[in-house]
């Protein structure tokens, strides 16, 4: 999953349990939909991508730089980036919000399409609740 700085889910990809997260990094970044906000053309890519040591890969770093995205990823074997835990908490909080939908905590569906549909519905509900909260 990739989310913005407030924890709003932008793109979710379902993979098998034994697939490394680093293999899906570029697919997640490329799959971000246009996000409107300020006047002008909607943004298609973030300024920076934050990730933990599981996303440390030189080819991914280079591909992100080619897309003009600053990779803020801790290197394996080096101390963690200061304050990364507070930023990582946003993603973990979003996963916790998805697990509030009991059907998503454990995947019961055999067909991936059904599971993806439930995840999309849950992400839509999370976005709608955040929009509703900011408007009141």
From TrEMBL:
<feature type="region of interest" description="Disordered">
    <location>
        <begin position="33"/>
        <end position="56"/>
    </location>
</feature>
<dbReference type="Pfam" id="PF01609">
    <property type="entry name" value="DDE_Tnp_1"/>
</dbReference>
<dbReference type="GO" id="GO:0004803">
    <property type="term" value="F:transposase activity"/>
</dbReference>
<protein>
    <submittedName>
        <fullName>Transposase DDE domain-containing protein</fullName>
    </submittedName>
</protein>
<dbReference type="InterPro" id="IPR002559">
    <property type="entry name" value="Transposase_11"/>
</dbReference>
<feature type="domain" description="Transposase IS4-like">
    <location>
        <begin position="2"/>
        <end position="74"/>
    </location>
</feature>
<dbReference type="GO" id="GO:0003677">
    <property type="term" value="F:DNA binding"/>
</dbReference>
<dbReference type="GO" id="GO:0006313">
    <property type="term" value="P:DNA transposition"/>
</dbReference>
């Amino acid at each position: 999953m990739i989310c913005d700085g407030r924890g709003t889910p932008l793109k979710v990809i379902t993979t098998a349990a034994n697939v490394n997260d680093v293999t899906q990094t570029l697919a997640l970044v490329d799959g971000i939909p246009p996000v409107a906000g300020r006047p002008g053309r909607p943004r298609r890519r973030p300024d920076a991508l934050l990730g933990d040591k599981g996303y440390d890969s030189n080819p991914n770093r280079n591909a992100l730089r080619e897309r003009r995205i600053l990779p803020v990823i801790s290197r394996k074997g080096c101390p963690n980036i200061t304050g990364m835990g507070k930023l990582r908490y946003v993603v973990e909080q979003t996963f916790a919000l998805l697990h509030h939908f009991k059907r998503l905590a454990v995947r019961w569906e055999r067909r991936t399409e059904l599971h993806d549909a439930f995840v999309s519905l849950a992400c839509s509900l999370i976005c709608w609740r955040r929009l509703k909260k900011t408007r009141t």
